[in-house]
Amino acid sequence: MTVSSQSSYSAWNVGDTAQLFHSFTFSEILAFVTLTGDENPLHRENAAEKRDQALVPGAMLSGLAIGVVGSRFPGPGSILLQQECTYHLPVYSGEAITLTLAMVQKEDRKRHLSIAVTCESEQHEQVMSGTIVVKMRK
């Protein structure tokens, strides 16, 4: 579903979905861990030798989901209230992932939307799952 930048609560229905395909580069991982101060050598030192084996920080995966929520699903006007993530398997630089968001509940009185989040590797294995709850301003 594509909704304009003036997305409203009434535009969304249970069952609506969005997907994002991405492959993290070593440069993206390095920029992220530098910004966050993550000193885990799995992201930096070990990966410097083999750029295709840098471990993607879990926060980068959940951050992608937040990016989709803030930009298009449901998009501008949504206020993040809650995010819960479980990381099942590691993701490495260069590995393609598919992030899927699905609207699973609407709470009309509060204008809350609950979104299920799943992330799969290119081998179709679940690497992350969780939920996001947002409030729509209008």
Describe this structure in words.
Helix content is 22%, strand content 36%. It has helices spanning 26-36, 45-49, 58-71, and strands spanning 17-23, 78-87, 96-107, 112-121, 126-136. Strands 1-3-4-5-2 form a five-stranded antiparallel beta sheet, with helices on one face.
Overview features:
single chain; 138 residues; Thiol Ester Dehydrase, Chain A; 22% helix; 36% strand; elongated
Please render the helix and strand layout as text:
Elements: E1 17-23, H1 26-36, H2 45-49, H3 58-71, E2 78-87, E3 96-107, E4 112-121, E5 126-136
Antiparallel strand pairs: 1-3, 2-5, 3-4, 4-5
For the largest beta-sheet, the strand count, sense and barrel status come to: 5 strands, antiparallel
Low-confidence segments, ≥5 residues, pLDDT <50?
Answer: 1-6
CATH class of the domain at 16-23 and 58-136: Alpha Beta
The gyration radius over C-alpha positions equals 16 Å
Quote the average pLDDT.
88
The secondary-structure class comes to alpha+beta
**Any idea of the CATH topology of the domain at 16-23 and 58-136?**
Thiol Ester Dehydrase, Chain A
Kindly, what is the distance between the CA atoms of the first and last residues, rounded to a whole number of angstroms?
18 Å
- The total strand number stands at 5
Strand content: 35-45%
Return the string of H and E elements. EHHHEEEE
Q: Please give the share of residues in helix.
A: 10-25%
In spatial order, strands of the major sheet run 1-3-4-5-2
Shape: elongated
CATH architecture of the domain at 16-23 and 58-136: Roll
Alpha plus pi helix count: 3
What is the CATH H-level superfamily of the domain at 16-23 and 58-136?
Answer: Hotdog Thioesterase
